[in-house]
Amino acid sequence: MNSMDRLRLLFEEQINVLPIAENLLLLDQSNFREEMKKRNFHSAIVNVNGEWMKFDDGDEAPSPLQEEDWMEADTPLLIAFRMLIQKRRYFIKDEEGNPAYIVTRTDLDKIPLRIGFFGLISLFETHLKDLIRKQLPHWEESITENRLGQARNLYEWKKARGEEIDLVQCLQFGDLGSVFSKKQRFRKFEPDFSRDNWVDMMNKIGRLRDELAHSQSHLGFTWEEIDRMIIFIRGVIDREDPVFEG
Predict the structure, then answer these.
(1) Residue 56 — φ and ψ, nearest 5°?
(2) Comparing 215 with 40, which gets the higher pLDDT?
């Protein structure tokens, strides 16, 4: 397992949903509506005559919990993200099998998931740079002289500091889009993509990366849009390394 595999394992499997979940306050049937209003809860588990039942805003009365109301505590965070796009909230049991946590779509904006997004984008960036090193010996011809000059300046600066680095490592995210745009190399990732599709997707991923890096309160994309970016990134990383023309 190489360093990239270990990082991917961390972001896709080892960080589970619990860091974004909230402790579940179990309510009693005698006053659960008042408690929910006071605490601005939209969902709750209510003790009804000794049985745990669910109640969501808009329900007429508590109803039995179903299998689809639960999420496993060890659900990887990025899988939980997709589940919460489809369904607004889930309850989570503790080790004894008792209802203990709740996770809702509102929790998607918490720091652990932002770290997961940023980590996956960083893996994508690393993957593209590795492809350039391995398969595109003349990649310098694919970016402008201005951008190449900026990369070289950064390379010389880092080298003077004693960093073990190469020129490819000094490319900006936008440069990667340019390299794989030349000769429509992006079609090795997405055969049906046009150049406009590729540029649009790379621009969106780059903007999301910047928003995450600067801890913006609003990321500028819907969760569905972010999900499409993640699907795209994972598709590129999962694909067997394509062979490009030199």
Answers:
(1) -120, 150
(2) 40
